Amino acid sequence: MPHRPGEDEDFRDFARRNDLTDWEPYFHPSSENLIERVLELIRDSDVVLDIGAGDLHFAHKVALKAKRVYAIEVNPYLVAQGLTELGFRIPRNLHVICANALDYPFPSRITVAILLMRHCKHFKLYFQKLQEAGCHFLITNARWKTDFEQIDLNSPRVSYKDLKEGWYACSCGSVGYKGEGNLPEFPAVEVKDCPNCSNF
Known about the structure:
Blueprint: H1 9-17, H2 32-39, E1 47-51, H3 57-63, E2 68-73, H4 76-86, E3 94-98, E4 112-115, H5 123-132, E5 137-140, E6 149-152, E7 158-159, E8 166-170, E9 175-178, E10 189-192
Parallel strand pairs: 1-2, 1-4, 2-3, 4-5, 7-10, 8-10
Antiparallel strand pairs: 5-6, 8-9
C-alpha cells in the first residue's frame, strides 16, 4: 500500500471516492509512548470507538483493557493486515469494521471515542456524530496536532462571539487565539461557531 501521494492511481481514486483529502487517507502509526498514555485514560467499563484504526495494533491493546472496542477503518488492506497479524488471538470484545467512518452509523453505547489522526479534515462531522451517539469523551490529536487531548463532548460550548479574549478550541476542529495575545496559552475555551466553522 502506498505511503506517499502520487505512488498509485488506484489509491488516489480510492481516496477521492471516500472523500478523504490531502494526507487523511494515509496511515501513520502512533508511537508506543502515545499509545500507553492514551491507554491510561481507558477504564475497564468503557465501550470504545477507534476511528481510523489502521492496522488494529492500538485497537487490540485497547480491547485488552476496555469492555468493548469497535475499530473502524476504511482501508481494506490495513484491516486485512491487522486481522492476519492477530489471527486467532483476536479478542472476543474487539469488533472490526471495514467502512468509511464518515458514512457508518456510530454505535449508540460508546463512552469513549479515539481519533488519533493529525491530518483529519472531517473533525466537525465526527464530533457531531459522536454527540448524537451519546459518546461522553473524545481522545484526539486532530485539533492541536502536537499532542492528544481528552474532550468532554457533553460540556457546554461558549459562543465564539461571547469570548472576549484567549485561546479557543472549536467543535469544528479549529483552534486559535482571539484578541491581542496577552493571555497565557492554556486552558483553551471550548467554543462553537468560530470564524472557521464554515470552512470545515
